[in-house]
Amino acid sequence: MKVLIWAAALMALGAVGACSSGSGMTGSVFASSAGSGSSGHGGAGGGGTTFSTSTSTANSGSGAGGADCASGMPDHQTCVTCEDGKRPTGAMLYKALDDCIYCTECYTVCDGNAHGCPKPPAMKGACDGAAPDKMICGNTCTPCANMGACKATFNACIANQECLDYGTAILKCPP
Known about the structure:
Layout: H1 7-13, E1 36-40, E2 48-52, E3 57-60, H2 69-72, H3 76-86, H4 88-105, H5 134-147, H6 151-158, H7 161-170
Antiparallel strand pairs: 1-2, 2-3
């Protein structure tokens, strides 16, 4: 599962949010080498998720009212589909970033095939490496892609509250 990209946003921009994948896989497209999350609960817009990385900690509220897909859905894909319906613009932006990172720029080190990418890119991304490596994926390739070839897509996602909310929400989906 894609669980690696959020720390790049925290380190590079001091922002908090998260993003998902185009094929229903979750994780974060912002990178974290040693991230952990715990859910909080509250009223509409309250609570949120705490993201801890090796360098910083920040809180992000859900920002969206309505039913909680994570607690009301039986499995991961159903939960992600629910979130797609609640946050269509955020889902679209998040999945575009996810595809840029995992299916194009970091296909090899982030094991794009295991993340649902249909085939390797025609040309290896400038940030990519020689073999799958989760540490290099999260610590090196993902931040490199976010600040390089995927920068416009990354900036579009982190500038959109719905994209940030979507990324936070799918991290709460059942495995």
